[in-house]
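Lab manual, section 2.4: Encoding a predicted structure.

Procedure: take the sequence of the chain (223 residues), apply the prediction step described in section 2.3, and record the output as structure tokens. A sample record is shown.
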Amino acid sequence: MGSTCLDEWTMAVSGVAMSSAVFLAGGGTIALDRFIDRSGWAARNPWSAWVFSGPLPPGKTRSLGLLLAAIAVVCTVGSYHLLFGAVVSPLHARVNFHRHHIALSETRLSSDGAVTFDAYVDAGPDTGAAYVIAARLIDTAGDTVAAWDGVALAQLPDSAIRNTYPYAWASHFKTETIGFSGQTDARARITLPPAETAPAGGAASLELEAINGAMWRTELSPK
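Recorded output:
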């Protein structure tokens, strides 16, 4: 879920409660259901009360009202806990609206020095993108054993960035003038060519550096 949808979860849970009330009380005098009922068709078909604006069978309104109220409470409390916590766990924000984060996984180093990894922008504002300007392979001592600067990343061919969601309207990873970027919710498998700066022997992890100084690191997956 993008941060905009997450911020407006109240609209969804309010919709559950409001639609429950309309289901029980009917659509009112100017509702389409009322015009349907003028012909007497609804009165001749008892099942129509469950599809259109009642009246519901006597004795059913109270029990249905309690059931729908319970469903609305579960939807509200459950979705709040899922997205923000504070019900049976500490308060948290599942998505950070202010700072991008790139989750890295399935990072593998091939014998020729190329690096393949999966990237997912799982947090950050929808209106911007995370801009990566450098990538490095780090050994167990914390030293850089191979590096790609912004120029090298900007020259990645289209085949090196395989977006999970190729649709035109979806969030993508793509090359920029310097480095590459990924919008919130973009997922891709990215391949870095063998680095020219240093051999990749002894590498233990991959580190990406953003234009704002943020760092994201992941351990290399076993071969």
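Check your result against the sample. The first strand starts at residue 101 and ends at 109.
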